[in-house]
Specification:
It is built from three helices and eight strands; from the N terminus they run H-E-E-H-E-H-E-E-E-E-E. With about 240 residues, the protein is an alpha+beta fold. Strands 1, 2, 3, 4, 5, 6, 7 and 8 form an eight-stranded mixed β-sheet that branches. The protein is rod-shaped, with a radius of gyration of 55 Å. The protein binds 2-acetamido-2-deoxy-beta-D-glucopyranose (5 copies).
């Protein structure tokens, strides 16, 4: 029995040992489970972080897209602004041209606008050739009269005789304008008095060379007609220039 007891004790001790060993085995099993949990947690955290990152990226990306589209809209607005600016400039230009065709804003200071041209009435007196040259230095030429309206405009603006851009210096009796156009005989304003006095008269009393330059009016004062006069005489003069566009 002792042996049995012994045995049983042995068995018990064996059982204890096996229990202990099984317990220690259970402990060994529990340790990997904990690690798994930790791993799982780490994984979860990682997943959460990754999702968070993805969300953040998504938000950033959508912000980026939003900004991009806003930028594109900004460039659209810039383009529209540019287009409007150009349009505005064009409108102003048109308005200015309209102003210029109706008003006197186009002519230089001291020049008078009439019928799309500018006129300068001199305050100094010069002989005809110097008058002609002076008009050129002012950017114009001695006036060329093309119609009744222009003649009326000029005579209404002068009270004494003025040189105009007409002469027969080269060939006596062949009157030409300073632009080399011959005088059109249907558009001339030579004086024709009822007593038979007519201009040009090539008067040679003062000078044998005769009168080769045309003036508006004569020294006596009437200014609504043309006379021929001695080119060396000093008179005021009228210059003409195109109105600037
Ligand atoms: C950009 O402009 C378009 C129309 O041109 C509009 O429909 C859109 O909402 C605008 N986007 C932003 C972000 O302003
Ligand atoms: C047109 O002329 C008027 C007067 O001559 C002036 O007040 C106005 O500013 C001018 N407009 C432009 C666009 O030049
Ligand atoms: C002269 O003027 C008239 C009337 O304006 C015109 O019919 C004619 O063609 C002109 N003659 C010349 C040579 O320019
Ligand atoms: C004008 O007078 C000059 C000088 O006397 C003379 O040579 C010329 O023939 C005259 N011309 C006319 C058209 O009478
Ligand atoms: C006009 O005056 C200038 C300078 O005083 C002179 O050189 C020129 O010969 C004159 N011309 C005439 C046609 O008298």
């Amino acid at each position: 029995m002792d042996a049995i007891y012994e045995n049983s004790a042995y068995i018990r001790s064996r059982a204890d040992a096996s229990r202990r060993s099984s317990q220690s085995k259970g402990q060994a099993k529990a340790a990997p489970c904990k690690r798994t949990k930790v791993l799982l947690i780490v994984l979860c955290v990682s997943v959460v972080l990754v999702f968070g990152g993805l969300c953040l990226l998504g938000v950033l990306y959508s912000n980026f897209l939003h900004e991009m589209s806003q930028d594109m809209n900004n460039t659209n607005y810039e383009m529209e602004l540019e287009a409007l600016k150009t349009q505005n400039k064009e409108t102003l230009r048109k308005l200015n041209r309209l102003n210029e065709s109706t008003g006197c804003a186009v002519c230089a200071v001291n020049w008078i606008h009439f019928g799309g041209k500018c006129y300068y009435f001199s305050t100094v007196k010069m002989n005809w050739t110097r008058s002609r040259d002076h008009c050129v230095t002012l950017g114009g030429h001695l006036v060329i009269i093309n119609n009744n309206a222009e003649q009326d405009f000029l005579t209404s603006n002068v009270k004494i005789t003025h040189w105009i851009g007409l002469n027969d210096i080269d060939i006596e009796g062949r009157w030409v304008w300073v632009n080399n156009q011959p005088l059109n005989d249907s558009i001339e304003f030579w004086i024709k008095r009822e007593n038979g006095v007519r201009e040009p008269d090539n008067w040679t009393k003062d000078h044998p060379a005769g009168e080769d330059c045309a003036s508006l009016g004569h020294p006596a004062g009437e200014t609504d007609f043309w006379t021929d006069a001695f080119c060396f005489k000093e008179k005021r003069f009228v210059c003409e220039a195109p109105a600037s566009v």
